[in-house]
């Protein structure tokens, strides 16, 4: 009792994969850096230590990375809806 879908299979484009994996990578890096800041604070680092070395970069990644990943996911969804709409109108 299998039901077959009469709609044609929509191929996934390279730009869709690029957006999906880039958004996933940026979001994962942001979460890892966020936890690094939490762990650094928990082990007793003072506020002046976060202004030295790689810590400003580690703090900037979640600040900029999460909104960028969100925008990339929204763009991916919009592109997917447009592609599926065009495929449905052709059928």
UniProtKB/TrEMBL annotation:
Listed transmembrane segments: 21-45, 57-82
Keywords: Membrane, Transmembrane, Transmembrane helix
Species: Microbacterium luteolum
Identification of the protein by name: Multidrug ABC transporter ATPase
